[in-house]
């Protein structure tokens, strides 16, 4: 645990920053509407635009050229992998994904572009994030399966040009609510809180009677550690109460030991619209992953590098 | 007759005339009259026996106020209900006490006779003797939603049941989300998800790692997965792969094949795992739901433990609630929003099937319903259309279609009256499409089956609808209506007499007696009492009784048109109050009647004015051949008045044909035509025994353009014809009414009072000469209830009224010439009317023979048209 913020500040959209963008990355399969909504909230929060990338897997086409190539259906049937059928299916999915994304973004009134890529998914994102800067947030349009945890970690590590990745899990249900920051360290916390405030302000609906809030959920192993963490938080955020454009508070819970189930339960009860976590802490270790957390969270998860 | 210029020669139904003042006294025949006759026909022989006019005492039956025995109606007990209707009331009592579904009652009688009020009073008394009816509700049928179930509950319990169900659902709306949001439920739910999901997910991840360790990648395809050989994270190209040694390639392919089989097994398990998860979640939900649903419904079950149908429904509802507990969970952001309006559970379609539709309950029998303190309901449905009678299934528009459910079942009058009495207006019932048939179906089947009229009749498009369980029916139906409705139904509907076996026939009028006069005073007292009017003093009561007799068109009876009597009393109260009287007097009643007539008699005034100004020709003086004054009654709305009309006859040699010009011009009604044919029969029978009737005669109502009906002018027409044939003038100061038979007997007619008064008014306007008067059938003398001014004129000898029995009597009065009796040889005295007529006809016969007129048609010469 560090007591002071590290000097390596990740570029996470300063107040006057408006030159970044949101990359909405879609693979085969239906995009999750909540992921698209998260992308639009981000774009609004940072006065940005959305670069939608629809990536078709060419590797499966390459596989199809092998004489032994077979496909295993979701029902467990094994059958030869037909190139024609594969291309047709990919084309239909690509078109459906494009329409779904464009329709949602048009309704949201967010400026956007839609482009296609045929290389591997990771490479397509790496290329995209290298094209423009200075910051990019990648929103993964498809829900992440628990088994894809390592892949997500790899993605976080490989895409050098991104400042954060938004992912949604299979339990995703909530697309509106307060912004909860999972705090396991004060490293980069002020920047994260500022970003969270912008998200909270941007996600407020005209019909909401009260503003969205930013809630700091302290995640520590022991009660004593939690108390110590809270002290540090108050140290780095002296203007915690009144210094932001929306209410910011610390959630006090005696039963939170940082397990995915506990985090999911607390955020559910808080009616959370967005969860922000830092990559590199014990919630999402740099070398490991927290696919279990992602699989039970009901809100989109913004992983900040 | 609706048109102003149409005439009804028989009695008008309702009379309203103003009487003059003056007492009726006996008076001798006028000497002027005798002088007039002598002046005309000194050479003719006058009849000595039938010329006496009626004395004034015969013209009106008055009430002596002293005979009533009280000062004002405040001194006597009001009589609420009917008087003199023992037969009808006994029938109603019998009908109401006959415990059989086919002994329903038809109350027939004139409108405004007070029969409905009396009926209502009697039914309310009878209803107290009946058992208090049960409540009825419709509830959702969980086994077959298209057939809502009808539940019978003890009286007064339906609303309690409905409120209890609503409360239970409201409780569940609050409790279930709280429980589901609770930590306990969520922990158990997560445990299920974790235990179930971890299986295939972990297996897939393990397989992915295992494949990666063998340089095999797990790829997603549009329809599933594929496994591909990789090198440095990339899928190996075919040419590269093919360049590998055979053994290496075979080994890789075998690895991939094995991984594929493993993957297939994992994926095959996925649906089973999902099913297992769902089952476990359902079990968890059912456990939770069972507890909360039982807790919510157990109080209701305890409260209705003695009502097995309710318990059965609660069990079904409870099972359904447990199965569908998810309906109480928020369905999304809209439900969770604090801006969401709290909605009534009855308005939320998710909860409607647990609601209760109360169709019959104790508290008030609904619209038109009256409940005695104890006992069954008495319901009067003023608008008995199909839906109001049987009940209806309403629909609402949803997504462009018509939808309904059991909560949209609306009860009808039969539901509200079940266990009691239902009063309906028969005319309105039969005029309402499908309503009468539906009522009969319900009475025959002894159940109320609510269905759309289209379903019941098989006509029209039937929208998606319901088939509610019928409700057993135990009701006594009482139809009220006029006699023509009763007779029409009895004649045309074979079911009618079988279902309405009790006929309660209310008289239009009751006999006049001192007892009934006093009872009438009691009714007047009740009217004053009910409407909080001034008391009516004894002179006022006497005057009202006389008006009642006049309304009955019969001095021996009093009308029971209580509605009209009530109008007079209330209007008299107005005038009495205006004059500052402490009680309603004779003069107030008189003023009320006069004012009532004045408001309605514009047409009468206009008609009389046209006669006075000579536009319509009616003589009231002098004598003319073949011309006579007939009397008609005009009825406009509910106002009637008499109007004189000139009738003329012309004769000539001809085929034996008497032409009724009204009929030829299609202005005559059937009764009038019949009267004319009778007239022809009389002439032929009396005069054409020895020679053919070589007569051509025309008879008409002068200046009549609106149609004539009734036979009350048939005697008048004979007089005109006899005058023309005899060439003897008729006194124009006289007017005549009366029908006749083929033997020359003068018969009773209706509207005698109006007719006499109409001619009197004209004569009075021109100046009464003492030679003026009216001939009416003797049979009508008993009906005379003339205005007091007419009676006074008769008493003073300035107007006279003759009662005649035969044509011979009448022609003598009209001409002053003896009619002449038939001798044994068939001849009549030559100077008599009959003698002159016979001579004229014989002369015609000869002339006709000479000209060969009836030779062509000898056999039909006496056939008169």
Identify the notable features of this structure and list them briefly.
heterodimer, A: 305 residues, alpha/beta, 10-stranded mixed sheet, two-stranded antiparallel sheet, 12 strands, 36% helix, 20% strand, disordered N terminus, B: 865 residues, 7-stranded mixed sheet, 44% helix, 16% strand, disordered C terminus
What radius of gyration of chain B results from the CA coordinates?
A: 46 Å
- Per DSSP, what share of the residues of chain B sits in E-state strands of 2 or more residues? 15-25%
List unreliable stretches of 5+ residues of chain A: 1-18
Strand order across the largest sheet of chain A: 5-2-1-6-7-12-11-8-9-10
- Helical percentage of chain B: 40-55%
Shape of chain B: elongated
**Could you tell me the number of beta strands of chain B?**
33
Low-confidence residue ranges of chain B = 1-50, 333-341, 855-865
Helix content of chain A: 25-40%
Q: Give the quaternary arrangement of the chains.
A: heterodimer
**What's the end-to-end separation of chain A, in Å?**
17 Å
Largest interface: A-B, 47 and 49 residues
Describe the structure.
The complex is a heterodimer of chains A (305) and B (865). Chain A is an alpha/beta fold. Chain A is 36% helix and 20% strand. Chain A has helices at residues 33-45, 59-64, 83-108, 121-131, 149-158, 189-203, 223-236, 260-269, 291-296; strands at residues 21-26, 50-55, 70-73, 78-80, 112-117, 136-140, 164-167, 178-183, 214-218, 248-251, 272-278, 301-304. Chain A has a 10-stranded mixed sheet, with helices on both faces. In chain A, strands 3-4 form a two-stranded antiparallel sheet. In chain A, helix 1 packs across helix 6. Mean pLDDT of chain A is 80; it is low at 1-18. Chain B is an alpha/beta fold. Chain B is built from 29 helices and 33 strands. In chain B, strand 5 (216-221) and strand 6 form a beta hairpin. The longest helix of chain B is centred in the N-terminal third of the chain and has 58 residues, at 246-303. Chain B is elongated. Strand 3 of chain A pairs antiparallel with strand 6 of chain B, so a sheet runs across the interface.
């Amino acid at each position: 645990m560090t007591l002071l913020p590290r000097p390596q500040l990740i570029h996470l959209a300063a107040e006057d920053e408006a030159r970044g963008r949101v990359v909405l990355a879609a693979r085969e399969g239906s995009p999750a509407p909540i992921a698209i909504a998260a992308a639009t909230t981000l774009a609004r929060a940072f006065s940005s635009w959305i670069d939608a990338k629809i990536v078709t897997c060419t590797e499966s086409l390459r596989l199809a050229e092998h004489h032994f190539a077979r496909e295993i259906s979701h029902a467990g049937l094994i059958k030869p992998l037909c190139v024609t059928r594969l291309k047709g299916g990919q084309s239909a999915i690509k078109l459906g994904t494009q329409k779904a994304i464009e329709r949602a973004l048009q309704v949201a009134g967010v400026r956007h572009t839609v482009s296609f890529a045929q290389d591997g998914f990771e490479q397509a994102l790496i290329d995209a994030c290298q094209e423009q800067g200075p910051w990019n947030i990648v929103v993964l349009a498809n829900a992440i399966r628990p088994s894809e945890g390592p892949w997500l970690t790899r993605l976080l590590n490989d895409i050098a040009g991104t400042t954060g990745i938004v992912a949604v899990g299979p339990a995703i249900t909530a697309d509106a609510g307060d912004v909860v920051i999972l705090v396991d360290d004060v490293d980069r916390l002020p920047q994260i809180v500022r970003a969270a405030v912008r998200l909270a302000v941007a996600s407020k609906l005209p019909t909401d009677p009260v503003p969205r809030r930013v809630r700091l959920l302290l995640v520590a192993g022991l009660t004593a550690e939690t108390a110590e963490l809270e002290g540090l938080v108050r140290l780095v955020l002296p203007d915690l109460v009144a210094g932001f454009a929306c209410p910011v508070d610390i959630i006090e819970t005696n039963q939170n030991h940082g397990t995915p189930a506990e985090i999911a339960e607390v955020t559910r009860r808080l009616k959370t619209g967005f969860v922000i976590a830092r990559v590199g802490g014990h919630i999402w270790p740099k070398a490991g992953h927290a696919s279990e957390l992602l699989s039970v969270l009901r809100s989109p998860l913004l992983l900040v590098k | 007759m609706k048109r102003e210029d149409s005439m009804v020669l028989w009695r008008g139904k309702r009379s309203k005339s103003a009487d003059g003042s003056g007492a009726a006294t006996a008076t001798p025949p006028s000497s002027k009259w005798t002088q007039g006759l002598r002046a005309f026909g000194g050479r003719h022989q006058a009849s000595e026996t039938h010329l006496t006019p009626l004395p004034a005492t015969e013209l009106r039956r008055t009430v002596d106020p002293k005979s009533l025995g009280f000062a004002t109606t405040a001194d006597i007990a009001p009589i609420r209900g009917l008087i003199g209707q023992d037969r009808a009331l006994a029938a109603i009592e019998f009908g109401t006490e006959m415990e059989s579904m086919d002994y329903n009652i038809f109350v027939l009688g004139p409108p405004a006779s007070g029969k409905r009020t009396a009926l209502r009073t009697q039914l309310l008394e009878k209803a107290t003797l009946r058992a208090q009816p049960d409540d009825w509700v419709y509830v959702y049928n969980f086994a077959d939603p298209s057939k809502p179930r009808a539940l019978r509950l003890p009286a007064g319990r339906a609303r309690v049941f409905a409120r209890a169900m609503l409360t239970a659902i409201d409780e569940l709306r609050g409790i279930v989300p709280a429980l589901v949001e609770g930590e306990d439920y969520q922990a158990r739910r997560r445990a299920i998800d974790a235990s179930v999901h971890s299986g295939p997910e972990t297996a897939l991840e393990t397989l992915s790692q295992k494949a990666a360790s063998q340089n095999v990648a797990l790829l997603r395809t549009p329809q599933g997965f594929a496994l591909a050989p990789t090198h440095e994270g990339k899928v190996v190209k075919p040419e590269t792969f093919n360049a590998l040694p055979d053994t290496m390639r075979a080994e890789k392919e075998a690895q991939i094949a094995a991984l594929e089989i493993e993957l297939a097994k994992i994926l095959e398990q996925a649906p089973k795992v999902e099913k297992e998860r769902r089952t476990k979640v359902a079990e968890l939900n059912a456990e939770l739901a069972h507890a909360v649903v039982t807790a919510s419904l157990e109080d209701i079950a305890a409260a209705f433990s003695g009502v097995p149908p309710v318990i059965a429904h609660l069990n079904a509802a409870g099972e359904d609630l447990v199965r569908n507990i998810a309906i109480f969970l928020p369905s999304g952001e809209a439900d969770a929003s604090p801006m969401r309006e709290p909605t009534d559970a009855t308005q939320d379609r998710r909860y409607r099937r647990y609601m209760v539709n109360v169709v019959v309950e104790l508290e008030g029998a609904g619209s038109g319903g009256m409940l005695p303190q104890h006992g069954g309901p008495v319901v009067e449905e003023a608008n008995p259309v199909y839906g109001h009678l049987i009940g209806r299934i309403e629909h609402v528009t949803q997504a462009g279609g018509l939808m309904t459910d059991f909560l949209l079942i609306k009860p009808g009058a039969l539901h509200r009256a079940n266990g009691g009495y239902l009063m309906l207006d028969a005319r309105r019932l039969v005029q309402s499409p499908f309503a009468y048939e539906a009522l009969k179906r319900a009475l025959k089947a002894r159940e109320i089956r609510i269905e759309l009229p289209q379903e019941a009749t098989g006509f029209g498009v039937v929208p998606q609808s319901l088939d509610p369980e019928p409700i057993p029916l135990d009701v006594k139906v009482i139809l009220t209506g006029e006699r023509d409705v009763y007779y029409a139904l009895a004649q045309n509907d074979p079911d009618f007499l079988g279902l309405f076996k009790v006929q309660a026939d209310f008289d239009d009028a009751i006999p006049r007696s001192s007892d009934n006069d006093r009872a009438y005073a009691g009714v007047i007292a009740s009217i004053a009492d009910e409407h909080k009017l001034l008391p009516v003093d004894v002179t006022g009561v006497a005057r009202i009784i006389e008006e009642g007799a006049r309304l009955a068109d019969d001095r021996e009876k009093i009308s029971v048109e209580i509605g009209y009597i009530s109008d007079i009393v209330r209007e008299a109260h107005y005038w009495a109050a205006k004059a500052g009287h402490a009680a309603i007097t004779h003069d107030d009643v008189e003023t009320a009647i006069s004012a009532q007539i004045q408001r309605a008699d514009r047409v009468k005034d206009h008609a009389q004015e046209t006669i006075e100004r000579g536009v319509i020709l009616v003589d009231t003086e002098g004598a003319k051949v073949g011309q006579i004054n007939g009397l008609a009654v005009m009825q406009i709305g509910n106002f009637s008045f008499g109007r004189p009309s000139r009738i003329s006859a012309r004769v000539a040699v001809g085929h034996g044909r008497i032409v009724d010009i009204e009929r030829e011009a299609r202005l005559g009604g059937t009764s009038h035509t019949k009267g004319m044919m009778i007239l022809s029969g009389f002439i032929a029978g009396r005069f054409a025994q020895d020679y053919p009737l070589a007569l051509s005669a025309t008879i008409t109502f002068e200046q009549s353009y609106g149609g004539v009906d009734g036979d009350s002018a048939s005697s008048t027409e004979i007089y005109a014809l006899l005058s023309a044939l005899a060439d003897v003038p008729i006194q124009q100061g006289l007017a005549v009414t009366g029908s006749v038979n083929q033997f020359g007997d003068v018969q009773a007619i209706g509207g005698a009072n109006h007719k006499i008064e109409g001619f009197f008014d004209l004569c009075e306007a021109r100046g009464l000469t003492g030679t003026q008067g009216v001939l009416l059938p003797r049979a009508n003398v008993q009906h005379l209830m003339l205005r007091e001014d007419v009676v006074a004129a008769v008493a003073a000898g300035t107007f006279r009224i003759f009662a005649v029995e035969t044509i011979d009597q009448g022609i003598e009065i009209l001409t002053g010439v003896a009619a002449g009796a038939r001798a044994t040889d068939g001849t009549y005295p030559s100077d008599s009317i009959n003698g002159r007529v016979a001579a004229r006809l014989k002369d015609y016969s000869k002339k006709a023979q000479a000209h060969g007129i009836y030779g062509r048609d000898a056999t039909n010469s006496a056939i008169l048209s």
